[in-house]
Design goal:
heterodimer; A: mainly alpha; f41 fragment of flagellin, N-terminal domain; two-stranded antiparallel ribbon; 4 strands; rod-shaped; B: alpha+beta; 2 domains; four-stranded antiparallel sheet; 11 helices; 9 strands
Chain lengths: 298, 460
């Protein structure tokens, strides 16, 4: 084939452009640590990166929900512990006033203690976490238990629905509680009415009704411990869920890195290879037509 | 047998012929870097004898021929349109790719933030801050879609500007070719400067072929007729038919007409074909997919919020301003102004209870719902598909452009090997003609010496 003067230069320029482009790409990968600059660098990896980032976003959202649910449940747990201990104190107070051995002073003291326990229970059940009443169902902006000037407690103001928060796809934990389920359950009257009845019975030294009241306190106690164990298992589930989410996030992060990040050792060796190619192309271009028949014409 | 004077004449003529060839060599060397130049070759012919007993009357220049291979040139005209088309697509799509943004910080990131804001509201349905945040993220999502539409429209109008520029270039080349046709027809009679005109013609057609898919047919008079698309005339003989670009509503993009016919869809190759493909097919395709995402998002969110209750317990309003159809949805996505003005109108509850969060959870969980592409993709997946498509389109165009660029380079090398100037060859020719000139001069001197001898005999 006849080799024309221009061919060599045209080829040389094309080669220099190609190799310098390769070198620029390799350099960019090394300096940025990323293998994706524009989608066309690897369309499917770009789509994969979008998917993994969305997955991580979802996981982060569940982690945040789990964190806020955990702090809420731990407060609820503490409150329930207090309720349990107060109901147990109420039982002790009532038991001390039973029978003829108790003096009138002891009865009055028991009645006063019961009133104080009632007030503390109301306070506990009106606990607010993050600005919402946690024992009011979904009516969480309404104070669930209000007291009259004489100390008696009005009927439950909340509702029986509960608020759940999602901590995974199709997995949620309860974040507010039905106050009435705790105070009344399947009883005909709530715990506060039972306390009032108990106080009346103690003052009247009405042993059968004191015993009825004691039984009501016991049922209240059971409901509270039952709810506490439910909250406890919720907290445990949250712990497990958080560690599962963090494992999932690590997985997503690793996949994302595979899509987006340059393999440094490979990128550096690619850069070196590209540089050698570039140097070779430059060198070859510099030697084109360095010798010519014209050199030999005298 | 001729006399000595005839020999002297012959030597002179031969020296002139060699000198002429030397000049041609010089012309070739001078044009070593001229694009489209075909090397010239001086053709010698022996001058036949005029009388019996004569070897001949030396040499004369019969012709100066430019060396070109019509098939290779045609091949180049065929390869160039596709290469230039893919290069134009690759160039234009680079803008689109930049417009689409990085994973996690584009529409996908905005979608995640939007759904996150509803999740935060679900965690804390009575929080005024969370409600305000939902509105802000909704607005930011609307802005994000709007900006994406704008960026794609900018890429589209950029392609349109290049379409107009390309049409101008095509028209200029068409009139140049028509002009050359006239000059070639005129030069045909005398032959003066024909080769240079032909080189210019070849270069013009080559440039034109890169811009638009043309068919070039040689005329008998040496000119060339050029048609494009479905046989539309661009140059016939000395007449060129201009392509007109007319701004057309609603987007103000140029419609191309030739002889009153809309030829926009007929231009499928060359740089112009590539630009039109990006402008009329690729970008509108991405935009309509973006519209689908925005439309589905707004209808799905609205159908949930209108079934729920706001903070005051009133029936929920549509969160996004309801959209009539998917067309233009991405550009129109916005938070319902009534809701935006009053955060308590953000719907979180599925029952009329301020603390309920069921609807906010459902909205937040839309992120995992396969709402798009016939129930196979989430909203974010659908965005990923747009990015994938644009990336793939761009990658394919880049690969095709470089592959076809290689073919074009090889065809050009082939053309060079026939028509290109080789300095070594010209140097060899230079020696050849110089030596021949010297030999002829020597012959001249010899004959002259013989005449001297003759004259000295006469003088005695």
């Amino acid at each position: 084939m006849r080799i024309a003067f221009q061919t060599g230069f045209r080829d040389a320029i094309a080669d220099i452009q190609r190799t310098s482009e390769q070198m620029a790409t390799a350099q960019r990968q090394v300096s940025t640590g990323r293998r994706l600059d524009v989608p066309s660098d690897d369309p499917s990896a770009t789509t994969g990166a979008i998917g993994e980032r969305a997955t991580m976003g979802t996981i982060d959202r569940y982690v945040r929900s789990a964190d806020s649910a955990t702090s809420r449940l731990s407060i609820v747990d503490t409150v329930l512990s207090e309720i349990v201990s107060k109901l147990s104190a109420a039982q002790t107070a009532a038991a001390s006033a039973i029978g003829d051995t108790a003096s009138p002073e002891q009865r009055t003291a028991a009645v006063d203690e019961l009133a104080s326990i009632r007030d503390q229970l109301v306070e506990d059940l009106n606990t607010k976490v993050g600005g919402v009443f946690v024992f009011a169902g979904t009516a969480s902006t309404t104070k669930p238990f209000t007291q009259n000037p004489n100390g008696t407690v009005n009927a439950y103001q909340g509702n029986a629905s509960t608020v759940n928060v999602d901590i995974d796809r199709a997995k949620s934990v309860q974040a507010t509680f039905d106050g009435q389920a705790l105070t009344q359950g399947s009883d005909s009257t709530d715990i506060f009415t039972a306390i009032e009845n108990l106080r009346t019975a103690i003052l009247a030294n009405d042993t059968p009704n004191i015993e009825n009241g004691l039984a009501a306190m016991k049922r209240g106690f059971d409901r509270a411990t039952g709810m506490q164990s439910q909250v406890g298992s919720g907290e445990k589930a949250l712990d497990e869920q958080r560690s599962r989410l963090s494992t999932q996030r690590l997985g997503a992060k690793a996949r994302l890195s595979k899509f987006e990040d340059a393999d440094m050792s490979e990128a550096i060796s690619a850069m070196n290879r590209a540089e050698i190619g570039y140097r070779a192309a430059l060198g070859a271009a510099a030697t084109i037509r360095r010798v010519s028949l014209l050199d030999y014409l005298k | 047998m001729g006399d000595l004077f005839t020999s002297l004449q012959m030597a002179t003529r031969s020296m002139a012929a060699q000198q002429f060839a030397l000049e041609t060599t010089g012309h070739n060397i001078a044009n070593v870097n001229t694009e489209g130049y075909s090397r010239r070759v001086t053709e010698f012919a022996a001058v036949p004898p005029t009388i019996r007993w004569d070897a001949g009357d030396g040499v004369e220049v019969k012709d100066i021929r430019s060396i070109r291979d019509g098939f290779i040139e045609q091949r180049l005209w065929r390869e160039l349109p596709d290469q230039q088309k893919q290069a134009a697509i690759a160039d234009s799509l680079r803008l689109v790719e930049v417009a689409l943004g990085d994973p996690g910080s584009s529409i996908d990131g905005k979608l995640t933030e939007f759904f996150d804001s509803f999740a935060t509201l679900a965690d804390d349905p009575t929080s005024a801050t969370a409600r305000q945040q939902v509105i802000s993220q909704g607005q930011s999502l609307g802005t994000g879609f709007g900006e994406m539409v704008n960026r794609l429209r900018v890429a589209q109008s950029d392609a349109d500007t290049r379409v107009r520029d390309t049409v101008d270039q095509i028209n200029a080349l068409a009139s140049q070719i028509a002009h050359l046709n006239r000059s070639i027809a005129n030069a045909g009679a005398t032959g003066i400067g024909l080769d240079a005109l032909k080189d210019e013609q070849g270069e013009a057609v080559k440039t034109l072929a890169g811009l638009i898919n043309v068919q070039a047919m040689q005329r008998e008079d040496g000119g060339v007729d050029v048609t494009f698309g479905s046989g539309r005339a661009l140059v016939i003989g000395e007449t060129d038919f201009q392509i007109t670009a007319t701004q057309t509503p609603p987007l103000g993009l140029a419609t191309l007409t030739a002889n009153g016919f809309n030829v926009t869809s007929e231009i499928t190759s060359g740089a112009l074909g590539g630009l039109l493909q990006v402008r009329d097919t690729a970008i509108p395709g991405y935009l309509s997919r973006l519209d689908d995402i925005a439309y589905t998002l707004s209808t799905q969110v609205n159908s949930l919020t209108t079934a729920g209750y706001d903070f005051t317990g009133a029936a929920g309003l549509a969160f996004f301003t309801p959209l009539g159809s998917a067309t233009g949805a991405a550009g129109a996505l916005a938070v319902n102004a009534t809701v935006a003005a009053d955060p308590s109108k953000v719907v979180a509850a599925s029952v009329a209870s301020a603390g309920d969060n069921a609807m906010a959870r459902q909205v937040s969980n839309l992120r995992d719902s396969k709402l798009m592409l016939g129930g196979t993709a989430t909203l974010t997946d659908a965005w990923g598909r747009i990015v994938y498509q644009a990336g793939l389109d761009s990658q394919t165009a880049q690969n095709d452009a470089s592959l076809r660029g290689e073919i074009v380079r090889q065809v050009q090398a082939l053309r060079d090997s026939v028509s290109g100037v080789s300095l070594d060859e010209e140097a060899a020719n230079m020696i050849k003609f110089q030596r021949a000139y010297e030999a002829n001069a020597k012959y001249f001197i010899t004959v002259n010496t013989a005449l001297d001898t003759l004259f000295s005999l006469v003088g005695q």
